[in-house]
Amino acid sequence: MKNPLLSIRKTHEGIPSYCTANEIVIEAILEQAQQLNLHVLIEGTANQINQFGGYTGMTPKDFRDYVFAIADKIKLDREKIILGADHFGPLTWADLPEKEAMKNSCELVRLAVLAGFKKIHLDTSMKLADDNPDERLSDDVIAGRSAILLEECEKAYQELLKENPEEVRPVYVIGSEVPIPGGTQEEDAGLQVTKVSDFENTLKTYQKKFNEHGISERFEDVIAVVVQPGVEFGDKDIHPYNREAAKDLSNALKKYPDLVFEGHSTDYQTRENLREMVEDGVKVLKVGPALTFALREGLFALSMIEKELISEDRRANFIETLEKVMLENPKHWLKHYHGTENEKRTARKYSYSDRCRYYFSLPEIKSAIRKLFENIDGVEVPAGLLCQFMPVQYKKIRDNKLKMKADALVKDFVASVADDYNYAVKK
User: Fold this and answer.
1) Which residues contact 414 (CB under 8 A, 6 or more apart)?
2) How is the chain split into domains, by residue range?
3) pLDDT tens digit string along 349-384?
4) What is the predicted pLDDT for the residue at 427?
């Protein structure tokens, strides 16, 4: 059995990469994949999941079991799920010297492969503590560190083969021009489409380093190169895709029929822009914050309905609870949101970078969501009130396309984001 991701090399189609650890979001995405009979790619980042737990408290194996448990709940065949490892490398250990950071990185990718992750993004693009802070990190260093990680992945895969000779081989994503996870931190951050010369130099350097490490044949398992096609988002702004600006890069890819581009930070692009990206070779479309942004929109809309129907003493007060928790524990947003107190308050709720997603797994927030759902499901919501705060979902309920259940209403916000990606990648 071949890795299903290999097919995107030879077809006109691509695949969305849903980078999230949120249970409601994952369930919404898996339900949609089930309805459409699609393979679905779910990725966890190195800061979300690693051998020390990450900010979710999960190892790669824990994340696998977590996603599979959601699939089992809705009776989705696990074979339809492709697990991906995003930014796997020294991302969370950049403050350590190379020896220690790479040791941790090798253990991380090893655990990912052993846990059944079939798409590994080898990200070694960040400087480590003993790298020269005044010099650009060379492609040689980046590619050399990636080769070390791939060797570790291959050893882990050979372990899996001993247990199961039919084990599917993982595929890899490389690249030295890697955007930071979760969008830019500054609105005026310079945005340049990857130069053709940089893309081709990346390929040559990785091939050279793979040769030096005796793993040249493994280059055939590399399916994608991370590039900057000219898309990004910050707190307030979205940089839309401009295919004319990316034309030279797109044309250069035609010389490499076994490779596609992986685009990061494609969140909030229009469905037509996403489709153009796929047509231009950006066949892996990573999306993360836009999914939890949509979840937050749905929860806020339900909260407004709750205020109209539920007495004050019985409300979940999700909006107020989220603000309280974020103020009590500001580490996930304090360095990212700037301006007046009112501007920061607005950003905590409505920023495109969606820093509030880091708080959704906390017990107080999960409890507020459960109570909100119970409150809405325990009353009859007038059609006109539903139409006021959830007009799209109102029409779907009216047309018998959606159940009048609190969780279904919220998940439909997430599904609408995934709809745009499915439109973009399918021909």
Assistant:
1) 24, 25, 28, 29, 291, 294, 295, 298
2) 4-287, 292-412
3) 999 999 999 999 999 999 999 999 999 999 999 999
4) 78
Ramachandran area for residue 402 (φ above 0: left; ψ -120 to 50: alpha; else beta): beta
Cα dist from 362 to 94, 268, 278, 330, 373, whole Å: 26, 26, 36, 13, 17
Residue 202 structure tokens: 């990346």
CA proximity to 124, closest of 92, 89, 171: 89
Contact 271, 240 (CB under 8 A): no
Task: Give CA–CA dist 194/163, Å, rounded.
Answer: 42
Q: Where are the alpha helices (DSSP H) in 48-187?
A: 60-73, 98-114, 139-163
**4-287 domain in CATH 3.20.20.70?**
yes
pLDDT at residue 190 in the model: 63
User: 312-334 burial string, b = 16+ CB within 10 Å, else e?
Assistant: eeebbbbbebbeebbeeeeeebe
Burial of 401 (0-12, 13-18, 19+ CB in 10 A): exposed
Residues 204 and 216: their CA atoms lie apart, in Å, by 12
239/180 Cα distance (integer angstroms)? 15
Residue 120's DSSP bridge partners are 85, 172
pLDDT at position 81, please?
A: 98
| Cβ–Cβ < 8 Å for 329, 355 | no
Residue ranges in the chain modelled with pLDDT below 50: 185-188
292-412 architecture in CATH?
Orthogonal Bundle (1.10)
